[in-house]
Specification:
By secondary structure, this protein is mostly helical. It has one domain (6-60, 75-115, 122-263): Hypothetical protein af1432 (Orthogonal Bundle), CATH 1.10.3210. Helix content is 59%, strand content 0%. It contains 17 helices and no strands. The protein has helices at residues 6-17, 43-52, 55-59, 78-95, 100-109, 118-128, 135-146, 157-164, 175-198, 209-215, 219-234, 244-262, 271-287, 294-297, 300-303, 305-314, 318-329.
Length: 335
């Protein structure tokens, strides 16, 4: 069979195979700036491609997940976290016959607004910027305004909505967005356990017995249990949720990680230094705003100096922030 319009063919496949609760590409609520449809890609595939090819996505490889600027080759970064979220979310969406392309696009873009040094940097900017700073809101700002030399990526409503609402307290308007929100937590809880064990912060015997009994005693078993349970509870329904038993242990495991890892003195050992770097850079550029790149300066009148300075700092990778701090505040040897 000759396919003369690949996009239309995929859209027809979606209509005939996806769940009644899935978002069909042809039914997207569209973009803020209308564009001609692609002959090959659906609207959501196009969004995924725009995200993957943008500069903010590439910078994720040098941004902290949990352990600041890790030297080991096998610790997660914000980029590898994003890929793991995408894999888990796509697995769930496929099983529930939701739109995998929409799911993947949301997953790929959900953390674009993260600061250097992860949540440590986010906490600093949240205190310093009028109106606060949240990485999910910043991720939306990245794709709507900061990327593409200030033009944004012009993504569809559904992808932007999923990015904005991916946090635990978010309310995505699509099931695909809800899948990414849950996949995000499934991914980071489990891969952070793996990294914490690699760092010597945890051992397998530290994990609560009830969590192990219900979810499994390995990285793969826990993820598999959560995915299978979520699919079993959600199949054929206009909802995405876990059973009470699995959700209870999932939340218990999350609380355990906050207690033993995310607030652990070993994992947090360099946090004070990292926060000082972010704070000092913020204060410096507030006083020297003329040193910001032109595409950031263009937003000052509309958004205010502190928001634009936070935009610039949030775009930095861990290593760039450290180098910039050294350039500005650490004296060089006289030659």
């Amino acid at each position: 069979m000759e396919i003369t319009n690949p996009r239309s063919y995929v859209e027809q496949l979606e209509e005939s195979t996806l769940s009644e609760f899935a978002v069909l590409s042809k039914n997207t609520r569209g973009r803020e700036i209308p564009v001609e449809p692609c002959a090959i890609r659906t609207a959501f595939i196009r969004d995924r491609d725009r995200i993957i090819h943008c500069k903010s996505f590439r910078r994720l490889k040098h941004k902290t997940q949990v352990f600041l600027a890790p030297q080991g080759d096998h610790y997660r970064t914000r980029l590898t976290h994003t890929l793991e979220v995408s894999q888990i979310a796509r697995t769930i969406s496929r099983a529930l016959r939701l739109n995998e392309d929409l799911t993947e696009a949301i997953a790929m873009g959900h953390d674009l607004g993260h600061t250097p040094f992860g949540h440590s940097g986010e906490d600093v900017l949240n205190e310093l910027v009028a109106g606060g700073f949240e990485h999910n809101v910043q991720s939306l700002r990245v794709v709507e305004k900061l990327e593409n030399d200030g033009a944004g990526l012009n993504l569809t409503f559904e992808v932007r909505d999923g990015i904005l609402h991916h946090k635990k307290n978010g309310t995505p308007s699509t099931l695909e967005g809800r899948v990414v929100s849950l996949a995000d937590r499934i991914a980071y809880i489990n891969h952070d356990i793996d990294d914490a064990m690699r760092a010597g912060v945890l051992t397998g015997s530290d994990i609560p017995a009830a969590c192990t009994r219900v979810l499994g005693d390995s990285h793969g078993q826990r993820i598999n249990t959560m995915i299978l349970d979520l699919v079993a509870q959600s199949a054929g329904k206009n909802t995405v949720s876990m059973s009470a038993a699995v959700r209870e242990q999932f939340e218990a495991l999350r609380e355990f990680m906050f207690d033993k890892v995310y607030n652990n003195p070993i994992a947090k050992r360099e946090e004070g230094k990292a926060q000082r770097v972010v704070a000092e850079l913020f204060h410096y550029y507030m006083d020297h705003v003329d040193e910001l790149p032109p595409d950031f300066l263009a937003n000052i009148e509309a958004d205010g100096r502190d928001r634009v300075v936070s935009d610039y700092i949030a775009c930095m990778t861990d290593n760039y922030a450290i180098r910039d701090y050294g350039r500005l505040f650490v004296p060089e040897a006289w030659t």
